[in-house]
Amino acid sequence: MGKETFPKESKAAGMKLLTRKNYETWKLNIQLLLEENASFGFVDETGLGKEPPATASETEKDKYIQRKIKSRAILINSISEEFRQAAAKHATTKAVWIHLESIFQPSTRSRKMRLLQEFCLIQRKDDESMTSFIDRVDTIGKDVEKLAMTWENMRTYILIARCGKGYENLRQIIDQWSDTDFNWTKVSQALMSEENHRRFASGTSTESKESTDSKAYTTGQWNKSQRGKSSGSRGGKSSTNLQRSSSGQETRQEKYSYLFQLPRTRAFCKRLSKPAEIQK
């Protein structure tokens, strides 16, 4: 972090950047720094961090915006490069603060999940010295050990973290569960219920389409215009192929031509090596 980021009189300007190892110390130092700059209220949006009312003067509104931008900049600039880009995606000081807590706060479930995954998937980089790799494994391993997780906890965290794409909403819901409810049995049941719900929804959608086609057939909703489209799409035949008989009644071909638009009928006729057509 460059010295120009903070006022020269700030005693915290030389503070160490936030890393995986110094969260508690960093948290205290950054709080002091924000308070020194009258910006800590933006962390919880209280005091000077509260948005001025609509009746406030333009000068007051401008000062609020400047303090708001400054507080976020101070916070983001106090984070190491490894985590800064992800933090910068959040638009307010409060959002950045919450994001950092979710990653570094020792008691949070998301941090436990992240540490466990990181430990299980850790791998030596191509250009990394063995000494550095051993140090990384040792550091993360000790962090995981401090979590004091049981074997069931570890299985449950891996289960919900690696269940695949498409389960983000369920994962967020489960993340709000109490520690009592967050166990292997209940998480497994929630995942199975979600999968069954998706299968049922998919099956219902298919059945609904088939039911609609069947209803259209039984109620005669396949009108002449649809039948005309049917005849025109088969080999470029003109509508003259479906003229009425001399008695004024519909020919059998015209009457039942819509049946051949059903995928099942076409497939059946193809298997019999017969044209999907009924003779007059």
Automatic annotation (TrEMBL):
Coiled coil: none
Name of the protein in its database record: DUF4219 domain-containing protein
Lineage: Eukaryota, Metazoa, Ecdysozoa, Arthropoda, Myriapoda
Domain of life: Eukaryota
Biased composition (Polar residues): 240-250
Region feature Disordered, mapped onto this chain: 195-258
Low complexity bias locations: 224-239
PANTHER family: OS01G0873500 PROTEIN, PTHR47481
